[in-house]
Amino acid sequence: MPYIGKSPVGGGFHKLDNLTASATATYALTLGSAAYFPETANQLLVSLNGVIQAPQDSFTVSGSNLVFDSALTSNDSIDFVVALGDVLGVQGVTDGAVTTAKIANGAVTAAKLAAGVQGVAGISSSSTSGTALSIDANNIVTTPVRPAFFAHSPTDASRSSDAVLVFASETFDRTNNYNNTTGEFTCPVDGIYLFSWHCLHTYNGAYGITKLQLNGSAYANAQTYSGIANGGSSTASATLYCQANDVVRVFNMGTTYSSVTNDGYAFFSGHLVG
After folding, report:
1. Which pTM was predicted?
2. At a CB cut-off of 8 Å and minimum separation 6, what does 145 contact?
3. Which of 10, 58, 129, 186 is least enclosed by beta carbons within 10 angstroms?
4. What DSSP character marks residue 104?
5. For 148-272, which CATH class?
6. CA atoms of 102 and 112, how far apart (whole Å)
């Protein structure tokens, strides 16, 4: 819809610094002694020897230079050069006029955010509903869902030597990545994980060894000497860098002893640190 009455004026309108004609066609344009860069020759009003010149026909612009179609002489007079507004100058933007669609992807960088920006209550997940990450008033960062599990055995259960220890009872498994049938935890994402385990061993005068295995290879081990009939226990924890789909499990080593898992005593747990 056109304006009714006088249209609002936007942009800058400037009379540029005086120019003295000489034996050349090119003249440097300045405003307040600083170089002035017109966007186009059509933006300039140029008077030469009392005659208004036609842009593009009588002169052009190159950077901050005014270029006449032919060289002048010292007898010529460049009366004035007026810049008729800065091209696409914007006086102001209406409140609410800048929408998401008007902002280019990746245009808003960290450099354009004020230091100490506050008020971010949560970050949503692109694949699930709800808040994926939140920061409370005490600057505590929480993530509602993070891979973590704790498993143990509900009753005494002997485990064979050189076999995977299966902790069949799960107290919790946030992302369902621990298999209580095979005793294996499958990492859902790349990251640093912390695993802990504790086992009981029987047999008098024998060593009990359990190993944490990553993709079937020993990563860390725990060992005890069963010097009494009731045996002893092995306990350890280890930090691993795992990739998605890596498999972590506890393995019972040796042939002269067995491991016994017992509710409240033996367990296998792990979680994603970050």
Report:
1. 0.53
2. 128, 132, 174, 175
3. 129
4. P
5. mainly beta
6. 17
What is the distance between the alpha carbons of residues 244 and 221, in angstroms, rounded to a whole number?
23
CA dihedral 83, 88, 92, 94 (to 10 degrees): 150
Structure-token pair, residue 195: 């695993």
What's the pLDDT tens digit per position in 161-212? 678 888 888 999 999 999 999 999 999 999 999 999 888 776 555 667 788 8
- Which residue(s) pair with 141 in the sheet? 135
Tokens standing for residue 191: 């990251």
Angstrom distance (rounded) from CA 171 to CA 86: 70
Enumerate the β-bridge partners of residue 60: 67
Which amino acid is residue 19, in one-letter code?
L
CA-to-CA separations, 47 to 20, 35, 77, in angstroms, rounded: 12, 20, 9
Return the closest-CA partner of residue 84 out of 25, 142, 10: 10
